[in-house]
Amino acid sequence: MSAVSIRGVSVAFEAVRVFDGLSLDIEEGEFVVLLGPSGCGKSTLLNAVAGLIDVADGQIFIGGRNVTWEEPKDRDIAMVFQSYALYPRMSVRENMSFGLRMAKTPKAEIGRRVAQAAELLQIGHLLDRRPDQLSGGQRQRVAIGRALVRDAAVFLFDEPLSNLDAMLRNELRVEIKRLHARLGKATMIYVTHDQIEAMTLADRIVVMRDQKVQQIGSPAEIYGRPANLFVAGFIGAPQMNFLNGRLEAEGGGLSFVAGTLRLPLAGYAFNGAPPVGRDVVLGVRPEHLALAEAGLWQGFGVDIVEPMGADTVLWCSDGTHTLQVRTTGTSRITRGERVGLGLDPEQVSLFAADTGERL
């Protein structure tokens, strides 16, 4: 039985349909990330699961129970919002226990749950402070703690780290992943536009664009075999390189051809029959290109060198095509040098130029 089952759900605001007939199953204990750019519908879907907005069609099940028309308080969910939404005149302890007190939970049970959540989040020493005495990261921990004390079946996170600086985002991202591991069977649905958060947190990622699901898979699947050009370009930093070309028969096999660049495709796993003679787009990630004196592609000059600490990114051009190459941070390549590039055809991705779908 799925922890959350979204079956043919449509959401509309008057005449505008946000998404139409969307289905998704999330298993018990799974950490699923809804990932996509602003306006893709990911927060709307989360709010539909939470019961904060009504669905026009379809059904939502939580723990096997149809909750489509139930109030949020009856859905056995806990939600963490982008804004901390803490009561300024209440202490941390009072903020975390507020929902339990409203539900008339026994005091002893409230104390136990607050203490347990505070220990998990390492905020036990902050319980008597007010929100204005806390840092941004501490406030977000309190907001997460307020959700944890609910002991809910499903935890929903709506871009909880987007208001924090980079260091705090990294710190809390690790804490959320550790929290999921400690809670064991807790099911989490997490909304973000940050692909690093998605890749590091998720068991599965749901990539969305224009209110449609583009691909569902593990981080490794999304990264290694993107379903289309959008997913390929959205996931990965630096971004995947793209080259426009054609598929041509050559020596009993197939090759990708883009001007003077040729790549034999022996070993590439096509999804179906290879469309020989068709316009295609080849995608190759910067880390899958290697500097090689006897590389397959020659005549590239280094235009830009970007030191990034552990890595260095080189922008290389042959006058027609520009490619980013990720190399080690100890690289001594300088601007203006001529280099050859090698690549493994099993590491590339091919997409139809007209539809953008993976071949």
Mean pLDDT, as a whole number? 90
Categorize the overall geometry: globular
The first-to-last residue Cα distance is 34 Å
Assign a percent range to the helix content.
10-25%
Stretches where pLDDT falls below 50 for ≥5 residues? none
Instruction: Compute the CA-based radius of gyration.
Output: 25 Å
Number of contiguous helices: 8
Please tell me about this protein's structure.
There is one protein chain. The protein is an alpha+beta fold. 24% of the residues lie in helices and 36% in strands. The chain has a 6-stranded mixed beta sheet with strand order 6-7-8-3-9-10, sandwiched between helices. Strands 13-12-11-14-20 form a 5-stranded antiparallel beta sheet. A 5-stranded antiparallel beta sheet has the order 15-19-16-17-18, with no helix packed on it. Strand 9 (204-209) and strand 10 form a beta hairpin. Helix 2 crosses helix 3 (107-121) and helix 3 crosses helix 4 (136-148).
Identify the notable features of this structure and list them briefly:
24% helix, 359 residues, 5-stranded antiparallel β-sheet, alpha+beta, 6-stranded mixed β-sheet, single chain, 8 helices
Quick overview of this protein structure:
The protein has 359 residues and is α+β, with helices and mostly antiparallel strands. The protein has helices at residues 42-50, 92-102, 107-121, 136-148, 166-183, 195-201, 219-224, 229-234; strands spanning 2-13, 16-27, 31-35, 57-62, 65-66, 77-80, 154-158, 187-192, 204-209, 212-217, 241-250, 253-258, 261-264, 279-284, 289-291, 297-307, 311-317, 322-328, 338-343, 349-352.
